[in-house]
């Protein structure tokens, strides 16, 4: 089976379910990445997206290696994330060439979080990089924020920028995590009103600990519904039950999204195959 573009996947599959993984960092070896991939592939994801870190963890070169490994060894289509901060047109052309050589057909075009130490580049926003990637032959996706990007206070303006990503050539959107599906449905309506017609796949991340939740909400501005706050309070001193409650909550979110006719579901697996397996089983139950 040849690897597919995400556009082909959306054109031929009802409710594609995809996973996000991150490449090895520090001492985490390629063998461990292989192990994660070997447990995710049998769950039959529509595609696996592989994150990219331009700064801190220094695992950017591994994105391509891990994506190539997944395609070669498990015949699963991949999406390579790529951030544009600090990239010049020339360095982007080089990255495109490497991705193509590796057989990667899909790229998630991102700006990356603000990094004052990044060298000045040719691209200010993700949308600035999309046309070149499209020209280079990739099926390009972009990030979407059901509650608006954390640094944009007006959700309508944020959706207008999102429309700009579609106009620049993005052919699919992947959302940031959220804990309240009602916000996702309102966001979908705003997108439709703004003329966004490309498929939007909704990203869900199970909460596994209180510290992870607080990191997430401050990093991405997701709001916490009282149901989540109550679970965090109830299982404050019982990490195992909290993890189970987090996975159960995410599964219920995914089932609700599936029955509300979303275009696709994207599971932030955090490299934990058991999280992905629970999510896939829950989605299958309602389909
Ligand atoms: P942009 O779309 O460029 O937006 C950045 C900010 O500028 C927003 O506030 C937006 O409202 C505003 N804006 C956008 N366009 C314009 C414009 N034309 N004029 C004025 N303002 C504008 N980060 C990583 O480092 N590696 C990853 O692998 C990664 N994967 C991600 C995957 C998903 C699905 C998501 C949702 C996020 C991911 N991120 C990743 C995080 C992302 O890099 C940050 O959220 C970053 O701060 C914004 O990236 P963006 O591509 O959405 O930026």
TrEMBL record:
Gene Ontology cellular component list: cytosol
In Swiss-Prot or TrEMBL terms, this protein is called Methylenetetrahydrofolate reductase
Q: Mind listing the UniProt keywords for this protein, alphabetically?
A: FAD, Flavoprotein, Oxidoreductase
CDD domains named among the record's database cross-references: MTHFR
Keyword check for DNA damage = no
Annotated pathway:
One-carbon metabolism; tetrahydrofolate interconversion
Requisite cofactors: FAD
- InterPro entries, A to Z: FAD-linked_oxidoreductase-like (IPR029041), Mehydrof_redctse-like (IPR003171)
GO molecular function terms here? Answer: FAD binding; methylenetetrahydrofolate reductase (NADH) activity
* SUPFAM superfamilies, alphabetized: FAD-linked oxidoreductase
From which residue to which does any coiled coil extend?
none
Q: What is the lineage of its organism?
A: Bacteria, Bacillati, Actinomycetota, Coriobacteriia, Coriobacteriales
The source's superkingdom equals: Bacteria
Listed GO biological process terms:
methionine biosynthetic process; tetrahydrofolate interconversion
- Organism from which the protein derives: Leptogranulimonas caecicola
Signal sequence, renumbered to the chain: none
Catalytic reaction(s) noted? (6S)-5-methyl-5,6,7,8-tetrahydrofolate + NAD(+) = (6R)-5,10-methylene-5,6,7,8-tetrahydrofolate + NADH + H(+)
**Family, as annotated:** Belongs to the methylenetetrahydrofolate reductase family.
């Amino acid at each position: 089976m040849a690897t597919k573009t995400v556009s082909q996947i959306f054109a031929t599959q009802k409710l594609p379910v995809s996973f996000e993984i991150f490449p090895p960092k520090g001492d985490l070896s390629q063998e461990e990445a292989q192990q994660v991939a070997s447990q995710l592939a049998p769950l039959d994801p529509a595609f696996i997206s592989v994150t990219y870190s331009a700064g801190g963890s220094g695992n950017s070169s591994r994105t391509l290696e891990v994506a190539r490994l997944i395609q070669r060894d498990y015949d699963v289509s991949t999406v390579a994330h790529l951030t544009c901060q600090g990239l010049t047109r020339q360095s982007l052309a080089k990255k495109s060439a490497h991705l193509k050589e590796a057989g990667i057909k899909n790229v998630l075009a991102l700006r990356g979080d603000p990094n004052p130490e990044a060298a000045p580049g040719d691209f200010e926003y993700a949308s600035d990089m999309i046309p070149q990637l499209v020209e280079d032959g990739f099926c390009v996706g972009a990030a979407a924020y059901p509650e608006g990007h954390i640094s944009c206070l007006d959700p309508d303006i944020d959706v207008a920028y999102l429309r700009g990503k579609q106009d620049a050539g993005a052919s699919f959107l992947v959302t940031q995590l959220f804990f309240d599906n009602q916000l996702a449905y309102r966001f979908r309506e705003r997108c439709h009103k703004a003329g966004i017609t490309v498929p939007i796949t909704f990203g869900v991340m199970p909460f596994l600990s209180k510290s992870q939740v607080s990191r997430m909400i401050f990093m991405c501005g997701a709001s916490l519904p009282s149901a989540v706050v109550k679970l965090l309070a109830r299982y404050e001193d019982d990490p195992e039950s909290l993890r189970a409650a987090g996975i159960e909550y995410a599964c219920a979110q995914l089932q609700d999204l599936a029955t509300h006719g979303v275009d696709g579901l994207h599971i932030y697996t955090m490299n934990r195959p058991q999280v992905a397996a629970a999510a896939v089983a829950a989605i299958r139950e309602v389909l």
